[in-house]
Design a protein that fits this description.
Blueprint lengths: L1 E5 L11 H15 L3 E7 L6 H4 L3 E10 L2 E12 L2 E7 L1 H4 L10 H15 L9 E5 L5 H10 L9 E6 L7 E2 L3 H4 L8 H4 E2 L2 E3 H8 L2 E4 L2 H6 L3 H4 L3 H7 L3 E3 L29 H11 L9 E6 L8 H12 L3 E7 L3 H13 L4 E5 L3 H10 L2 E4 L9 H7 L3 E5 L2 H6 L11 E3 L4 H15 L2 H12 L6 H15 L2
Parallel strand pairs: 1-2, 1-6, 2-5, 6-7, 7-11, 11-12, 13-14, 13-16, 14-15, 16-17, 17-18
Antiparallel strand pairs: 3-4, 4-5, 8-10, 9-10
Helix pairs in contact: 1-20, 4-5, 5-8, 12-15, 13-18
Length: about 475
């Protein structure tokens, strides 16, 4: 099969979140299975020069967008066996950030239509076009509105992956024609609750909707999780399929990771202790190998469950634990954790921001990794933590539920709690503390976590089966 994967970001070129991880690893896994998957992203200003120097110019063309006729240049690079296309328009993409501009609707409408227009000009005829999140939600709309009658496009099937249903691309309907260039007869596809909703349009226009974990696929049929889209998803019925994300096990390997203090593997797991003590020293914590160190690497946002952490924080500090936190986000949480660091010196360390190398040190150095999310479409941090022998403590929601199983079960690789309740979370932490006090059992638990298979092998096979299903339609 030939798959064109359309995304707003992809590692290692440019990244702001989990979508980039998927766009940088799933296509490679599909190619490894014998299929041809190519990726297209915008040519952002901040793509490093080391990649720009390797890019090959393909051609340029103009993209009609409402009353505009905009330039688009196409560059490509082959990375780890995958061809990546980069669409160039400096007016839209020569900016300091990926997102957050007043004209994001226009920027990503241009990108979506340019990605479809590009198919006319490249030596690649995709069987499936796979769009991701609201930034590329107009891809199937443009395909069905402007390109279906062209022979090269006639048989293309479409997939839309929801990585986070909270962000839907909602705007006023007045931009439908003037900005997006969608003709009036298609406006009912875009309209939802009096607004223009790009994600709703994609759900209605594609052959199949996909989410990044089976549990999340079920949850978003519920108003609690759907952010208003449950009626549309319920119409789609069994054409909403969840496939758990994987992680790049080569990039996330404690045996070879250059970012951590000392490399280790399952056979030399005692060297993990070096990472713990060095991390505690670097972060200003009292070095104590017998005190359980809890790590958190998270956006500081309410849906990450940080209000639960706030509620029981002083109770937690009565136990023999230390905590190290890396992240940024809502001011209320940043200020709270700074205050806790001042109140509990040597026990609490917080670093505001996101430093990838420090995140790896936390994955390797912590004993346990806390993710108490209110909702979590998939989550990758819990998988990386387990890979490094750091036992995840998670709430049973979305991908957390699908990837981490309680140590009380036969295939346990972490600690879980069900209800969104601070003391239930504290109970899970204290169960981890109890096991931590038994060194032989804790070592066995670490090994169990490290042996969890979070590679893309199974997930890529599930994607192949999904593509085959829609190609038979």
């Amino acid at each position: 099969m030939k798959i064109l994967f359309v995304a707003s970001e992809a590692r290692p070129f440019i990244a702001s979140g989990g979508l980039a991880d998927v766009a940088g690893s799933l296509p490679k896994a599909l190619c490894d299975l014998g299929h041809e998957c190519r990726v297209v992203i915008p040519l952002y200003k901040n793509i490093p020069q080391q990649f720009r120097e390797k890019m090959e110019f393909v051609r340029n063309f103009n993209v009609p967008l409402a009353w505009r006729n905009q330039y688009c240049g196409v560059f490509k690079i082959r990375h780890q066996g995958v061809v990546y296309y980069f669409l160039d328009n400096e007016y839209y993409f020569k900016r300091d950030n990926l997102y957050g501009y007043y004209d994001d609707a226009e920027r990503f409408a241009f990108f979506s239509k340019a990605a479809m227009e590009m198919i006319n000009y490249i030596d690649f005829d995709p069987d499936v076009v796979h769009a991701n999140d609201w930034h590329t939600a107009l891809v199937p709309v443009y395909l069905n509105t402007f390109y279906r009658s062209i022979p090269k496009y006639h048989e293309i099937k479409t997939v839309f992956t929801i990585h986070n249903i909270q962000y839907q691309g909602q705007y006023g309907m007045e931009i439908a024609w003037d900005v997006l260039g969608i003709p009036e007869y298609q406006h009912p596809v875009l309209e939802y609750n009096g607004c223009l909703n790009m994600m709703k349009a994609a759900i209605m226009q594609v052959n199949i909707v996909n989410t990044v974990s089976p549990s999340y696929a079920m949850e978003i049929h519920d108003p609690w999780f759907s952010h208003g889209l449950d009626p549309i998803l319920n119409i789609k019925g069994d054409r909403v399929i969840g496939i758990l994300n994987g992680i790049d096990i080569k990039d996330n390997d404690p045996k070879t990771d250059e970012n951590i203090y000392k490399n280790y593997d399952a056979k030399h797991i005692e060297d993990k202790k070096v990472n713990k003590l060095e991390l505690m020293k670097e972060m200003g914590l009292e070095p104590d190998e017998n005190r359980m160190l809890i790590g958190m690497v998270s956006r500081m946002a309410s849906h990450k469950g940080l209000d639960l952490v706030k509620y029981i924080f002083h109770d937690l500090m009565r136990d023999n634990v230390s905590i190290v936190i890396l992240g940024s986000g809502e001011e209320v949480y940043e200020n709270f954790f700074r205050e806790m660091q001042n109140r509990y010196p040597g026990r609490v360390a917080v670093k505001i921001g996101f430093i990838p190398s420090l995140s790896k040190k936390i994955y390797a150095g912590a004993d346990a990794f806390l993710m108490p999310s209110k909702s979590e479409p998939c989550g990758l941090a819990q998988m990386v933590a387990a890979r490094y022998g750091t036992l995840p403590i998670v709430r049973e929601t979305g991908g957390l539920k699908d990837s981490i199983h309680d140590m009380g079960d036969k295939n346990g690789n972490g600690f879980t709690f069900k209800t969104y309740n601070a003391h239930d979370m504290l109970g899970a932490i204290q169960r981890a503390e109890g096991l931590f006090g038994n060194k032989p059992l804790w070592k066995k638990a670490m090994l169990s976590a490290m042996e969890s298979d979070f590679s893309w092998n199974k997930s890529a096979g599930d994607y192949v089966n999904m593509y085959k299903m829609i190609l038979k339609d």
